[in-house]
């Protein structure tokens, strides 16, 4: 199954970029969780270190197994993930008002992170086996059904951010599979028209207030607008060269809540400055563009669709989180892939890159 | 299939372009925030994590003339609320209300008053917290992150009400005061003098508040100190007040059960040795913000404890004004000390009969004996000869007719009429007949105790009108530096023979057959004069007829200096509603005795025994009426 010559087709540049971003992320977690008063490393740093190790393992596994064999079992994987999400809704661990985790003793697992991979896999399989890809209403509806089950379960947790990411994965896969541009336009139109309806009926109060706050953070500077204002101050005060690693006042004095998680990029911008921002933005862009090469080089439609699906979710989260970290988007609990603290996130992200590398590596095999 | 194969690369290019465009946009946004707007956000970040905390400067201490501390400072603990650190101010206040034993609405009022201040600035909820309150709060530090305990220097005044009206009190600067030039630089909540010396010398006493710049974390806890500007203590000030005399005078008032005022000056310099006004207040009540109930009580008290009677009370001088008449007559050459008048119990001037207080009359008296006996007819005659304008002139020369210029705020002007004064006041001309009443201290005379004390000082020293003053030295940081006394307002040397006659007369009042016998001290040659200030004039009596709640008994004056021929003390005792001046004399006597005892190193005397029975004033009147012979030769009713 695994041939030595495959290693020579591995995209080492992509691997290096992904590992570099993970290392920067780990360093920023060290900085944001460092206890200034007691002079101690935060426990999150250690946890993230272990998760990174597990993530690399997951990446290797996803690399070794032929993605086509995974595609053959995609429905099974999908069903298992859906059941796990149901399990979460019933027996999950509640933290911060959301039921997202399964308690596995030493570690909590967040299945919705893995649902992204599952969805990308099942959609790529479905669209590639389908003669018309995603060009017909009927096929799109089936794809949307795959999305709906997972996104509905995730949204129930509630984890709206991940649900939206799943929707983006669906759009990405369908787009790669030939979703007509005209339909894309219609979908966009429907989205715009549905926004007011969703505003009134679908959104919860706290979600509405978050969007209101985003539009005018000053009206609630101590409450919901606080994070957004502080995020902008954190980024802006970093300046061109930054305040220096571990020297950021905003992050070190905890003006920014959950800095090691949702706002890790703000602290990076504060401590490493615009220089650091350009470097990391460059790395992320390189990761995305190199991965797109994998889609282009892919031997079959399955591989291409899989890469684009995974990449859509990844790109969406990166862009949204970075925009949010500068106070440019409403505050939403979306992690920055490869950097934010979170075991499941880093493992699932590295696993996705395993799959992407997999597609490129096997471009010549039958 | 074929279409797919063609379409995919195109779609990947779309993806690629889209992502690249978004990343470029992000880079531009970060450029805008981090490079273009950097200065703004850097400042905001600094405001975020740095705080300037005020370090209140202790006010300068006040010492008495012997260098003993009168007003000091102690450290008090304030319990304050930092709204910025609070999730729910209302909830925190209701908890604090229970913990501190303070009514919740009161706490809410305080917070509401400061709502416009920056939210990181602590709002003081409890000043000078009790140990129990401090313990309650510190034990719950973690549950109440918005509550801090601040240590602040706080004024400490001597036990109870000693010298209250001299020191005055301190309090938070008011909005109106902040608008004034002198206090414009202060911030809200600063403590400034609000009365007395505290107000008069506020600039000297206040010192310079310091500041500490600290780094705080988002929970508001201090992480480190960036810089500190230590506070500069206010100047230490040495007063001319003699603590022993001040205490003696107040003790004598208390022991005899009188209210009123007393001032003792050094006639050689104008230094104020004692200044009493009773009832007083406890300045300690003000240092940590006076509570409403106490403030309301002080303000509505009919006895007006907030008024400094010594410089703000205006009363009719009664017979003490005869001294001014005597000085004017002598110095204007209208009369000599040997000028004699026959008193038959009254005399007619301008068609109206004016009584003397002694029905049978004093017979023929010269000036010495006229002063001794306080003969009205003698002074009617002199006053008539001198005229009101020359009386006014000499009242002014002696220090009775205007403000004395004492270094205390809000001194009121004493009024001694003149023809010009009346024209200005009422537009009417002065009738010569009015002068007759004025000559015995009646009519439109209205003087402050301090002005009368200054008059005695000027008579005692032979014509030098000093400016009474309370500060003798200031410590500018390099030891005591004497403050030069203010220059005398006027020096009009009186002829020695005139002076001797006046001093003899006043000596006789105390040591002869006069009304001041209760101030007699063997070997001390106390000179003095009593006076009675009518509380209601005849027409005023009608007006006040229905108001029986007000004490309508006359006030008593006793003015004095000692020793008679080389005076070291001069002063006045004003006893409110004492009915007669001789009842005020024991207070003066006690002060004079204390002065000499201290000077000669003897133990200080005990305050005078209270009158027996020491009951309500009404009983005293009854007792005095019943045992009329007990008093040493007091004149009958009607003595002015």
Give the helices and strands, then pairings.
The complex is a heterodimer of chains A (366) and B (640).
Chain A: H1 12-33, H2 43-64, H3 67-72, H4 74-91, E1 93-95, E2 98-103, E3 108-109, H5 111-129, H6 137-156, H7 160-176, H8 181-202, H9 205-215, H10 225-238, H11 249-252, H12 264-297, H13 301-325, H14 343-361
Antiparallel strand pairs in A: 1-2, 2-3
Helix pairs in contact in A: 1-2, 1-12, 1-14, 2-14, 4-5, 4-6, 5-6, 5-7, 5-13, 5-14, 6-7, 7-13, 10-12, 12-13, 12-14, 13-14
Chain B: H1 2-36, H2 38-49, E1 50-55, E2 62-63, E3 69-81, H3 89-100, H4 104-113, E4 123-126, H5 131-138, E5 147-156, H6 164-167, E6 170-172, H7 175-179, E7 191-193, H8 196-200, H9 202-206, E8 210-216, E9 222-229, E10 236-239, H10 243-256, E11 260-266, E12 271-278, H11 284-287, H12 292-300, H13 309-312, H14 322-331, E13 341-343, E14 346-349, E15 352-355, E16 363-365, H15 367-373, H16 376-386, H17 388-398, H18 419-426, H19 432-439, H20 449-461, E17 464-465, E18 471-475, E19 480-482, E20 490-491, H21 496-511, E21 527-533, H22 538-544, E22 555-562, E23 569-575, H23 585-599, H24 617-626
Parallel strand pairs in B: 2-10
Antiparallel strand pairs in B: 1-8, 2-3, 3-4, 3-5, 6-7, 8-9, 10-18, 11-12, 11-23, 13-16, 14-15, 17-20, 18-19, 21-22, 22-23
């Amino acid at each position: 199954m695994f041939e030595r010559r495959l290693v020579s087709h591995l995209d080492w540049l992509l691997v290096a970029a992904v590992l570099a971003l993970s290392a920067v992320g780990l360093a920023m977690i060290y900085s944001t969780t460092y206890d200034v008063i007691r002079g101690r490393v935060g426990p999150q740093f250690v946890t993230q270190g272990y998760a990174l190790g597990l993530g690399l393992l997951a990446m290797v596994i996803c690399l070794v197994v032929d993605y086509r064999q995974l595609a053959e079992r995609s429905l099974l994987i999908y069903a298992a993930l859906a059941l796990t999400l149901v399990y979460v809704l019933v027996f999950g661990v509640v933290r911060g008002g959301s039921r997202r985790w399964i308690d596995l003793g030493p570690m909590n697992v967040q299945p919705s992170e893995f649902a992204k991979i599952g969805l990308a896999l099942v959609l790529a399989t479905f669209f590639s086996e389908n003669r018309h890809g995603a060009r017909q209403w009927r096929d799109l509806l089936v794809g949307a059904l795959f999305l709906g089950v997972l996104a509905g379960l995730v949204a129930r947790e509630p984890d709206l951010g991940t649900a939206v990411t799943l929707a983006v994965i669906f759009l990405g896969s369908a787009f790669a599979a030939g979703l007509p541009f005209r339909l894309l336009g219609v979908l966009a139109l429907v989205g715009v028209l549905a926004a007011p309806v969703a505003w009134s009926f679908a959104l919860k109060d706290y979600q509405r207030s978050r969007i209101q706050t985003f539009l005018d953070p000053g009206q609630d500077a101590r409450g919901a607008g606080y994070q957004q204002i502080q995020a902008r101050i954190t980024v802006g005060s970093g300046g061109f060269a930054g305040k220096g690693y571990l020297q950021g006042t905003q992050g070190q004095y905890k003006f920014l809540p959950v800095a090691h998680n949702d706002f890790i990029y703000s602290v990076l911008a504060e401590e490493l400055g615009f220089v650091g921002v350009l470097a990391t933005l460059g790395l992320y862009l390189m990761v995305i563009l190199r991965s797109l090469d994998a889609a282009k080089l892919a031997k079959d439609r399955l591989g291409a669709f899989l890469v684009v699906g995974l990449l859509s979710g990844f790109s969406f989260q990166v862009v949204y989180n970075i925009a949010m970290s500068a106070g440019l988007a409403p505050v939403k609990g979306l992690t920055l892939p490869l950097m934010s603290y979170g075991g499941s996130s880093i493992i699932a992200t590295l696993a996705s890159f395993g799959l992407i590398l997999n597609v490129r590596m096997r471009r010549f095999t039958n | 299939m074929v279409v797919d194969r063609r379409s995919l690369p195109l779609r990947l290019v779309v993806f690629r372009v889209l992502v690249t465009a978004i990343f470029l946009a992000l880079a531009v946004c970060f450029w805008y925030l981090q490079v273009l707007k950097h200065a703004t956000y850097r400042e905001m970040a600094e405001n975020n994590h740095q705080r300037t905390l005020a370090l209140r400067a202790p006010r300068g201490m006040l010492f008495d003339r012997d260098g003993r501390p009168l007003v000091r400072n102690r450290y008090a603990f304030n319990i304050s609320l930092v709204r910025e650190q609070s999730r729910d101010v209302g909830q925190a206040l209701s908890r604090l209300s229970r913990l501190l034993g303070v009514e919740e609405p009161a706490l809410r009022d305080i917070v509401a008053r400061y709502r416009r201040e920056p939210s990181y600035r602590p709002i003081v909820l409890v000043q000078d917290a009790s140990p129990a309150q401090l313990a309650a709060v510190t034990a719950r530090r973690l549950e109440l992150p918005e509550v801090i305990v601040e240590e602040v220097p706080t004024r400490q005044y001597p036990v109870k009400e000693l010298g209250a009206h001299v020191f005055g009190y301190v309090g938070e600067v008011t909005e109106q005061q902040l608008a004034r030039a002198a206090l414009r630089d202060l911030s809200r909540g600063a403590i400034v003098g609000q009365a007395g010396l505290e107000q008069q010398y506020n600039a000297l006493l206040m010192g310079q508040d310091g500041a500490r710049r600290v780094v705080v974390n988002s929970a508001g806890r201090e992480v480190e100190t960036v810089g500190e500007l230590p506070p500069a203590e206010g100047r230490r000030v040495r007063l001319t007040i003699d603590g022993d005399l001040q205490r003696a005078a107040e003790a004598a008032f208390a022991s005899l059960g009188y209210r009123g005022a007393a001032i003792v000056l050094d006639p050689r310099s104008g230094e104020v040795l004692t200044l009493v006004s009773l009832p007083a207040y406890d300045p300690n009540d003000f240092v940590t913000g006076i509570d409403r109930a106490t403030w309301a009580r002080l303000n509505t008290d009919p006895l007006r404890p907030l008024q400094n009677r010594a410089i703000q009370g205006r009363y009719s001088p009664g017979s003490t004004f005869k001294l001014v008449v005597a000085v004017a007559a002598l110095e204007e050459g209208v009369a000599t000390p040997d000028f004699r008048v026959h008193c038959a119990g009254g005399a007619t001037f301008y068609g109206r009969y004016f009584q003397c207080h002694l029905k049978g009359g004093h017979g023929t008296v010269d000036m010495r004996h006229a002063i001794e006996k306080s003969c009205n007819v003698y002074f009617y005659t002199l006053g008539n000869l001198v005229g009101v304008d020359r009386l006014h002139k000499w009242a002014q020369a002696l220090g009775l007719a205007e403000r004395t210029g004492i270094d205390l705020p809000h001194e009121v002007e004493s009024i001694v009429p003149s023809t010009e004064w009346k024209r200005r006041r009422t537009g009417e001309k002065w009738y010569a007949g009015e002068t007759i009443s004025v000559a015995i201290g009646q009519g439109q005379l209205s003087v402050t105790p301090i002005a009368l004390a200054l008059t005695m000082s000027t008579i005692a020293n032979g014509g030098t009108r000093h400016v009474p003053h309370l500060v003798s030295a200031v410590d500018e940081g390099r030891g005591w530096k004497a403050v030069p006394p203010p220059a005398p307002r006027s020096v009009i040397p009186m002829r020695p023979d005139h002076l001797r006659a006046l001093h003899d007369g006043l000596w006789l009042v105390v040591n002869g057959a006069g009304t001041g016998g209760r101030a007699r001290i063997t070997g001390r040659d106390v000179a003095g004069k009593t006076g009675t200030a009518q509380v209601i004039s005849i027409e005023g009596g009608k007006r006040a007829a229905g108001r029986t709640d007000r004490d309508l008994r006359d006030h008593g004056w006793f003015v004095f200096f000692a020793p008679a021929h080389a005076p070291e003390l001069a002063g006045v005792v004003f006893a409110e509603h004492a009915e007669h001046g001789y009842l005020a004399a024991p207070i003066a006597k006690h002060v004079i005795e204390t002065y000499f005892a201290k000077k000669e190193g003897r133990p200080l005397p005990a305050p005078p025994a209270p009158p027996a029975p020491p009951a309500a004033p009404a009983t005293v009147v009854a007792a005095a009426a019943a045992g009329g012979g007990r008093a040493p030769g007091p004149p009958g009713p009607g003595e002015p």
